[in-house]
Backbone:
């Protein structure tokens, strides 16, 4: 059978990525940031493409189709029309955006060809932004048929789309158009509360449980009109994204009683209440939309993608309250996943290939990135050259040792196997620690990750034990939904406390992963997808009776998640981590060169804000 | 096979940089030589300036020599002059865009807003997806044809009223892209 190779690309906005399909099988996918080490890198994904081609052991000439995740001409039409509709207010926006469009974005096809070094005659395909998201949600899902909902900031015109997927075809039925956008509404509040747009949204989400939704009614009254079907209309008088270079304007600031919080300044109860309020509004909008899709087509399965689908709190709310029996979310839901969706669309919809639905989905556990081998002499030399001291151990020995280390309160960095595609670390590029420790959340935030103390950590739990810890009936292998800690494990705490004072309270018998509202962003671990972590958790359970550990991404603030062996070692030496596992290599911090540690330790001050 | 792709990308980048430096070096060197040589040859009034003209000619010749010996030594000079010229071009471009914005886009925008006053009685903000999906897959290979594609898209969207500003902008764009292209750029530098 002749092989069909498809290369999907997303770039130039945020989260550049590349993905390679071989006869419909996802061979490789990675964000450019993992290789370039620039967080949210939006440049052309040369390094990610190089990785994909190497993994498939092919060259660019072997690729049959190259597909880009957006239609830039349609996007240009949106930019032009909204420029006209907003004139003369949007001069600044126009002056800022137009030179970029005229100089490069409008000639994107030529630019991509020139970057790839391919002939001008070779064809590049362009898919619509939300269609790429919809494809990435449906085609790898474990469903033969499903309703599709994609929600993000904005693509070409669409900000939200509703569709249906059946076998190897998808169809978009309805869409909501710019400037009415749920993603942009949430980003406006991200901006107002002093976090960075496109990366700080999850901080706002993490802050919400500390506050009370006292502004929710005000938001609904003044800012957003919510229709019964979940579509919305934003009151543009309060927003600045169509006409200026900020998200909100003075009228918005006056409505909430002051200017936006300055980044890195003190977070007050006001920001927490705003976060809680917008989260409540978002939950309401998303639930209405989800129910509307169900009314349109009474199917038990729903798939979601787009940046807003990464709001785990809203997803948790939908899981609890919607009519759907099964919900599946693309683990790389942001624009990076667009590369995957675009490639899948070509394989199934354009080439009309048969779709074989897999019980556990086709994402291979999202382990599609750069692979760290268990043993590699070349890498050993490089690590040693960088001052690394380690010993090789058998896998069983490492598992045994790790279970003991977690129990003794050590913080462990793990870099094994293929890197995850998407924003979550699922055990191949993770930092793990004891979830039973009362001080672990603070320790990890301040000494390992160097980030805000309020941010919660996620639990990693054995699939078979998940129900005994969390109120859940399904699996959650990609950490894309929140679930509540079961009543039996909760502990009463002083409810009179407010804001960040709640942090110090012990909320359950797994306090390091229990948020102040008893929620947790759970990752279930099964033997098929993640055998190594499964064995570690099993052993840990054997030793302690507990099958939950803290799992957080292996990186420090402002940096992308680590990718290679060297990234792992460098990050290990720049933080207070105690143990590091790279492949089958076991590193102890006390055995490393202390001078090197001190030197690297100073670099903490250099981390960029995220 | 390992890193074949990335090696070819780096190779192309290096070639491009080399080509640009050579063009810049020759263009700038010849311009300096010609400028000061003409000044020197046609200067009858003040002979005191002759030594400066000679230095200028020598500087031009030095630039040309550097291109032959090692074009990469001109990176610094190229950066300074390029950013200067780019700044001037950008400034002119922004002024042109501003004129276009207030004289063309604003009045058209006003007409569009007037025509499309929103109905406040709507019960949903979802619209039917009408575009044929597969039509979005192909975009033409030819730049000029792409311009027609852009224009035709505005026809389809019933926004023909936008055409004047689109056409003017696309003309600006073509000029801008053309003037920035590798072949022409070094000679534009010499114009200043």
Residues:
């Amino acid at each position: 059978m002749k092989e069909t190779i498809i290369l999907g690309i997303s770039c130039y906005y945020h989260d550049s990525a590349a993905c390679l399909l071989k006869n419909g099988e996802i061979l490789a996918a990675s964000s450019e940031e993992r290789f370039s080490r620039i967080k949210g890198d939006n440049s052309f994904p040369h390094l990610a493409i190089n990785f994909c081609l190497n993994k498939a052991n092919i060259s660019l000439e072997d690729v049959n189709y190259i597909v880009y995740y957006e239609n830039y001409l349609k996007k240009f039409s949106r930019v032009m029309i909204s420029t006209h509709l907003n004139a003369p207010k949007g001069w600044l926006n126009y002056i800022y955006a137009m030179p970029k469009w005229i100089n490069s974005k409008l000639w994107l096809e030529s630019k991509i060809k020139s970057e790839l070094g391919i002939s001008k005659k070779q064809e590049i395909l362009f898919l619509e932004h939300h269609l790429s998201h919809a494809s990435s949600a449906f085609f790898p899902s474990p469903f033969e048929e499903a309703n599709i909902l994609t929600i993000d900031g904005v693509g070409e015109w669409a900000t939200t789309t509703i569709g249906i997927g059946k076998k190897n075809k998808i169809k978009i039925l309805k869409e909501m158009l710019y400037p009415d956008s749920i993603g942009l509404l949430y980003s406006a509040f991200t901006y107002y509360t002093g976090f960075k747009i496109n990366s700080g949204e999850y901080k706002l989400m993490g802050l919400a449980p500390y506050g009370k939704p006292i502004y929710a009614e005000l938001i609904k009254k003044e800012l957003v009109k919510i229709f019964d079907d979940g579509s919305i209309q934003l009151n543009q008088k309060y927003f600045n994204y169509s006409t200026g270079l900020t998200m909100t304007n003075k009228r918005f600031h006056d409505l909430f009683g002051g200017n936006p919080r300055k980044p890195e300044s003190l977070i007050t109860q006001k920001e927490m209440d705003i976060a809680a309020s917008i989260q409540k509004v978002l939950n309401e909008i998303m639930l209405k939309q989800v129910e509307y899709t169900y009314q349109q087509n009474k199917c038990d399965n729903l798939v979601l993608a787009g940046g807003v689908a990464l709001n785990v709190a809203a997803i948790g709310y939908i899981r609890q309250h919607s009519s759907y029996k099964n919900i599946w979310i693309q683990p790389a839901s942001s624009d990076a996943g667009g590369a995957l969706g675009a490639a899948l669309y070509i394989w199934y919809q354009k080439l009309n290939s048969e779709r074989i639905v897999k019980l556990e989905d086709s994402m291979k556990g999202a382990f599609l990135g750069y692979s760290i081998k268990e043993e590699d002499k070349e890498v050993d030399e490089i690590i040693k050259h960088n001052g690394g001291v380690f010993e090789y151990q058998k896998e069983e020995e490492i598992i045994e040792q790790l279970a003991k280390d977690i129990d003794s309160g050590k913080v462990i960095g793990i870099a094994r196997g293929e890197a995850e595609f998407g924003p979550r670390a699922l055990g191949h590029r993770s930092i793990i620690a004891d979830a039973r420790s009362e001080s672990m959340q603070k320790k990890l935030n301040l000494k390992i990750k160097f980030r805000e103390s309020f941010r919660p950590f996620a639990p990693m739990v054995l699939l078979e034990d998940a129900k005994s810890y969390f109120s859940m009936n399904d699996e959650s292998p990609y950490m894309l939904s929140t679930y509540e800690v079961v009543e039996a494990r909760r502990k009463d705490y002083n409810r009179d406390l407010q804001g960040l004072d709640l942090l110090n309270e012990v909320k359950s018998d797994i306090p390091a992963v229990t948020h102040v509202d008893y929620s947790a962003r759970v990752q279930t671990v099964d033997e098929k997808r993640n055998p190594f972590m499964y064995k570690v958790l099993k052993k840990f359970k054997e030793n302690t009776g507990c099958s939950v550990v803290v799992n957080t991404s292996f990186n420090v603030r402002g940096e992308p998640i680590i990718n290679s062996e060297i990234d792992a070692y460098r990050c290990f030496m720049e933080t207070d981590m105690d143990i590091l596992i790279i492949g089958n290599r076991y590193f102890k911090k006390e055995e490393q060169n202390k001078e090197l540690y001190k030197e690297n330790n100073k670099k903490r001050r250099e981390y960029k804000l995220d | 096979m390992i890193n074949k792709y990335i090696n070819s990308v780096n190779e192309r980048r290096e070639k491009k940089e080399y080509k640009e430096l050579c063009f810049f070096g020759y263009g700038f060197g010849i311009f300096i030589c010609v400028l000061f040589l003409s000044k020197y040859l046609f200067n009858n009034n003040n002979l005191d300036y002759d030594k400066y003209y000679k230095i200028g000619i020598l500087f031009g010749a030095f630039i040309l020599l550097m291109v032959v010996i090692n074009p990469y030594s001109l990176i610094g000079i190229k950066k300074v002059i390029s950013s200067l010229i780019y700044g001037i071009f950008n400034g002119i471009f922004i002024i042109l865009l501003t004129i276009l914005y207030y004289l063309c886009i604003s009045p058209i925008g006003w007409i569009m807003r007037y025509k499309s006053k929103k109905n406040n009685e709507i019960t949903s903000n979802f619209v039917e997806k009408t575009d044929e999906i597969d039509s979005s897959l192909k975009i033409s290979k030819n730049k000029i044809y792409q311009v027609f594609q852009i224009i035709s898209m505005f026809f389809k969207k019933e926004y023909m009223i936008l055409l004047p500003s689109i056409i003017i902008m696309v003309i600006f764009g073509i000029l801008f892209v053309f003037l920035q292209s590798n072949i022409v750029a070094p000679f534009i530098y010499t114009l200043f």
